[in-house]
Structures are given as C-alpha cells and as structure tokens.
Amino acid sequence: MEVRSFDGPEADDDAAVLPGVPDRDPPQPPTAEDLGAIASSLGLTLSAADLEEFVRLQEPLLSSYARLDVLFRRFVSDAAPASSEQRDPGSPPSPEENRLGAWFWQARIREREAGLLAGKSVAIKDNIAVAGLPMMAGTELLRGFMPTRDATVVARVLAEGGEIEGKTVCESLSSSAGSHTSATGPVRNPFDPSRSAGGSSSGNGVVLASREVDMAIGSDQAGSIRIPASWCGVVGLKPTFGLVPYGGIAPLELTLDHAGPMARTVEDVALLLAAMTGGDQPDLRQDDTGPAGRPVALGGGVSGLRIGVVTEAFRWQASQSDVDDAVREAAHAFQRLGARAAEISVPWHREGLHVYNAICLEGSAALMGDGMGIVTNVKAADQLPFAEAYASGRRTEPDGLPDTFLRGLLLGEYMRRAYSGRYYARARDLGAHLSAAYDDALSRVDLLALPTAPMKATKLPSSIAGLTERVIRGFEMIHNTSPFNVTGHPSISLPCAISEGLPIGMMLVARHGEEALLLRAAATFESDVFAAPEPRLG
C-alpha cells in the first residue's frame, strides 16, 4: 500500500485519482423500503413515518461514505506492484501436464536473483493472492477474480529470491480436508490416483511429492497443511497462531486461520518459514515477531528431549491399526537418538474436535455467510477485493457453495440465530481450557507426538457419490489436527512410514513460539529415521 504525506485534503479535488483504483458511483441512500426490510430482519417494528424520518437522518452519515471515496482515491493505491506489469501472466495447465489435477494455474514469477530462497521453486495455494494471476479458491463463485496485489507472504517469497511456479488447486473455499470439492475437479494422490491427496491444500501436497516444486505455501484451518502433507508423504508446518501474516489470503474463521510452509524436506520448510515471518501491522492477529529472514539452526540433535505420545490421539473409531502402530514406533524411535519417549495422557484432546466444531461452524457462518468474507481486524486493502468478488459470486450464483461448506453454514447460522452465539462463546472459553491442558502436558515433556490423521489416504468419492459420502469424506480425518487450530500451538506433520504403499504422517506439537525446537526434532528424525518417500506414480 502506498501512503502519501497528508497536508489536508482539498475540498473536492479528484485530480489525484490513482491508477488501478476503481472509480465508482457514490453510495446510494437507502429508501424507506430498504430500511423497513432491514428492520424486519432484525425483529424491529417501525412505523412508515419513522422509516421516512430515518431516511432523512442518514444523509449526514452518508456524506462520510461519499467522502471516503475521494480520500481513498487520493491517498491509497490499490494498484498492482510496478513489477507485476512485466510478470508472466501464465496459463492453465494442459491435461497432459496436470494428470493428478493439482495445478490451477502455471506461471513463472521471479523478481530477485539473490536472497534466502534463491534457486527455490515455490507453489502457491489458490486461496492466496498473487497479483496478475487468477484466484479461484476452488469455487465457481470466484471465477474471473484477478487480485491486483500480492499477499504478504507472496511478496516476501519474491523479495527473498524465490521463483513462483504457479497456483495449486485448493478445496472449494478451503472447506474440506479431502481433495474432491474443487470446481476444477478432484486432486489425486500421487501414490494412488484413486485416493484423496488430503486438503484443503491438496494441490500443494501433490506437486511437492511429484517433485515439481521445492516448496509450497498453504493455509490451515483444521489440518489443511498437515493432512495433505501426511497423505502425500511430505512435510507441512502449521506455525504458532499469528506468526505468519495472513494478509491477502482468503479467510474461513479468523481465530482458526493459519498460513504456513510445506516442502519435501524439513530444511526447506524452515527456510520458507523464515522468509514468511515478521510483523505485518495492522493485522491484529499478529504479534510483532521481528524481521523475516532468520532461518533456525536444525543441528544439535534431540539428546535429552522428552517426547510425550498422546494416549488419547490413538484408537479413534476411524483409526487404522497400521497408522497407530507406525506412529507409536516412530515416536519411540527418538529414543535411539538420545531422547526419551513415553505415553502421556491429555484427556482434553478427546474434547478438542467438539470445541473446534462450534467455533468453526458459527465463526465461519458469521464471516462467510452474513459477513460475505469481509474481516474487520486486518488491512482492508488486502481483504476487500476478495470480499467483493465473493459477495458478487454469492449474489449471482447463490447455489454455488460446496456441500462441505453448506453443511457448516446451515448449522452454524441456525445455532447463531437460535442461541445468540451462546455456544460459540462457550467453545471459545473452553478453548482456553483445551490450550491449558496442552500447556500442562508440554510442561512435563518437550514435544507431543500423535498421528496426523487417524487413517491413510481414503478413496475419492465416485462421480455419483451422494451428499452424505461427499461430506463425510471431507471431515473424517481432522480429529487430531483441528484442536491445535483452536489453541494455536505449532505442529508439524512429517512422513514416518509407508503401509500398503501409502504414506503415514506423524505430527509433533510444541509450545507456542517454539518452532525452532519443533523443526530441529523433525530434521533429526528425517535424517536419522525416515525421509520423504518417492511416490510410485505422479
């Protein structure tokens, strides 16, 4: 965003209109009928005379809205960065280049030769804005939307010498942990194309496992980085809440949204994390985390570390025994490296999904339902283009929402209206107890270990699958990942075994802000126990 010196706005001079800023008609005043409809929806009873009087009372307030248009055009630039005019506009991939359905758009963008990510190729999940490239977020509602500025994390990758190779398919509105809801079609697992790649950062997992890029940026609201990492046999990190700036990324629920790195190696995850971190004010979800560009040291081993294997993270109804066995064996393998591993009980872990569900359902219903995607505690210029495009799509294609999103929207909206946010508030309060339970466990051990997903990659729903199967396939795997979106603890999924030809992921969880410890332990496991597997197909 360009900020100009402020000498006081001239009265009505529009000569300073900036390029790239849409010049629209001033806001139109509401009619008495408009206000009557709003009053009725709010349960208010106003007479015709009251409504007419309220129409007249809006006039001085509307003058502020009209004035904002003048001020915005003069002092705020929403234009694309100058360098984006020379960017490769890219193109959609051909079917031959995209056999697993992982790419949404392919383009090559590099703006610096040197930097922390020099020589590294990077894929961007398609709910993250890249100026000059389409952004569909997996839904027809956004087809044709073209951001004019980069998300903060994209700008930082380019500033550090990374080369963006394009945008990968994500699940529709990031509302599924499977890989079958995108409007562009299913994303197929590179180890078995009949199976899910995991989601919602589905395309990222595939292009990494298939060796098409070195790194990828994903987002995670219930496991959307870690689940595709697990099912595609790569590494994915959900950082501490607020560590990585979220500006320019399509939201789902403000307190659950995380952005983070994915790669085939822990070293590349650490590099990409370093490139993305650092304060991005005003984003009230963020602490001032200091400057970017400080990769953590991965050496030093794990001697003396205490690993707690979370008892309650195993033996879910949906758990597969080979997954449980492989993760337990992997966690105890740390003992060969000088650490100590033992079972630890965290009874609250079994309640985490219940707490998560209420927060996600009601919070996302408020934000993506009535709220039309506009958020109020981040830089508006980063969020407004997406919100306007989403709202326009909702008006023109009201039935264009995916089944997985509709389930949550309908119940979340019902609970909000029927119980006035009571259960959202209770879930947020209980989230503090959930977080305290993990903190207590992490006061007795250094890291928690558990299966990323209770099962290996599941079969993709068939083209004639019914509503119930499509929805269940979107959420059956989030038991262990979603609680840490509520609490904000950093967690990483890394491959720990292969069973029946499919990868199994182990998740490690650390105290808030201890990404360095998490990455060091993961790097040690990767180098001395088990590294990312090669897919048979892809």
CATH topology category name of the largest domain: Amidase signature (AS) enzymes
CATH superfamily descriptor of the largest domain? Amidase signature (AS) domain
* Contiguous uncertain segments of 5+ residues: 1-23, 78-83
- What is the terminal separation in angstroms? 40 Å
| Spatial strand arrangement across the major sheet | 1-3-2-6-8-7-12-13-11-9-10
**Average pLDDT number:** 88
- Helical amount among residues, as a percent range? 25-40%
Name the overall outline: globular
Q: How are the SSEs ordered, and which strands pair?
A:
Elements: H1 32-41, H2 48-75, E1 103-109, E2 121-125, H3 152-159, E3 163-168, E4 188-189, E5 192-196, H4 202-209, E6 215-220, H5 226-232, E7 235-238, E8 258-263, H6 266-276, E9 306-310, H7 321-333, E10 340-344, H8 352-370, H9 380-396, H10 403-419, H11 422-444, E11 447-451, H12 467-475, H13 483-487, E12 491-499, E13 502-509, H14 515-528
Parallel strand pairs: 2-3, 2-6, 9-10, 9-11
Antiparallel strand pairs: 1-3, 4-5, 6-8, 7-8, 7-12, 11-13, 12-13
Helix pairs in contact: 1-2, 4-5, 6-14, 8-10, 8-11
